[in-house]
């Protein structure tokens, strides 16, 4: 398999962490979707990463779809419960974490791609409000548990850790650790795992 992505994308990092935890072999192909010479639309018509090129040459897109598929390839390190409420909970927590990223990425694009005189503070505030609300919910759902499903790591924990890790990377001035110490504790714990140490974002 080939994973097409960047070292800065939190969605790509989520997939890379899952592949490491599942002990799956793959080739990591770097792609800058913002470069004029990008070829990403040859594998993803939406022009986004990650994209997973499988052995038969077909491509899978969207990190949530990719990681769900990867979890079926081997029973090693099962990350998504098979059925019922626990499965739905894990996917819901992942969706909230991804939603926080979607909002924060819009803020970054507003500040980096749009001329200063055209930037909208109300738009930025609206998106950061989603970030705050999402983190508040994720913190409340985690509570004082070591992981989202109690005593073992799941995709929910990986998704949340990738989210807050990217916030620290791209928004170092944004203090999420003080109001949400349980998320900080989860992040620091997962950051000690080889899968996270080997995928720390860098530009």
Description:
With 203 residues, the chain is of the alpha+beta class. The chain has 2 domains: 2-70, Glutaredoxin (3-Layer(aba) Sandwich); 84-193, Up-down Bundle (Glutathione S-transferase Yfyf (Class Pi), Chain A, domain 2), CATH 1.20.1050.10. It is built from 7 helices and 4 strands; from the N terminus they run βαβββαααααα. The chain has helices at residues 10-21, 63-70, 84-113, 121-142, 155-170, 181-190, 194-197; strands at residues 2-5, 27-30, 51-53, 59-61. Strands 2-1-3-4 form a 4-stranded mixed beta sheet, covered by helices on one side. The chain is globular, with a radius of gyration of 17 Å. The model has no long low-confidence stretch (mean pLDDT 96).
Helix content: 40-55%
The structure class reads alpha+beta
Q: Report strand order across the widest sheet.
A: 2-1-3-4
- C-alpha Rg (nearest Å): 17 Å
Q: Rough shape?
A: globular
Q: Would you report the number of β strands?
A: 4
| Uncertain runs | none
* Overall pLDDT confidence: 96
The CATH class of the largest domain turns out to be: Mainly Alpha
Query: What order do the SSEs take from the amino end to the carboxyl end, as H and E?
Result: EHEEEHHHHHH
Quote the CATH topology of the largest domain. Glutathione S-transferase Yfyf (Class Pi), Chain A, domain 2
Distance between the termini: 24 Å
Oligomer designation: single chain
**Binned strand content:** 5-15%
For the largest beta-sheet, the strand count, sense and barrel status come to: 4 strands, mixed
CATH architectural designation of the largest domain:
Up-down Bundle
The count of helical stretches stands at 7
């Amino acid at each position: 398999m080939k994973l097409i992505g960047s070292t800065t994308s939190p969605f790509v990092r989520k997939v890379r962490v899952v592949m490491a935890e599942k002990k799956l072999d793959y080739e990591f192909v770097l792609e800058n979707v913002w470069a004029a010479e990008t070829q990403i639309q040859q594998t993803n018509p939406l022009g986004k990463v990650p994209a997973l090129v499988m052995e038969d040459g077909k491509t899978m897109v969207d990190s949530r779809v990719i990681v769900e598929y990867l979890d079926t390839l081997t029973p090693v390190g099962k990350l998504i419960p098979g059925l019922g409420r626990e499965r739905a909970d894990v996917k819901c927590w992942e969706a909230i974490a991804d939603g926080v990223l979607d909002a924060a990425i819009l803020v970054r694009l507003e500040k980096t791609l749009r001329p200063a005189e055209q930037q909208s503070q109300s738009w930025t505030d609206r998106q950061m409000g989603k970030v705050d609300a999402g983190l508040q919910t994720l913190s409340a759902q985690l509570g004082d548990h070591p992981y989202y499903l109690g005593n073992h790591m799941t995709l929910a924990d990986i998704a949340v850790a990738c989210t807050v890790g990217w916030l620290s990377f791209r928004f170092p001035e944004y203090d999420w650790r003080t109001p949400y110490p349980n998320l900080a504790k989860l992040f620091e714990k997962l950051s000690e795992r080889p899968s996270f140490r080997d995928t720390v974002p860098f530009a």
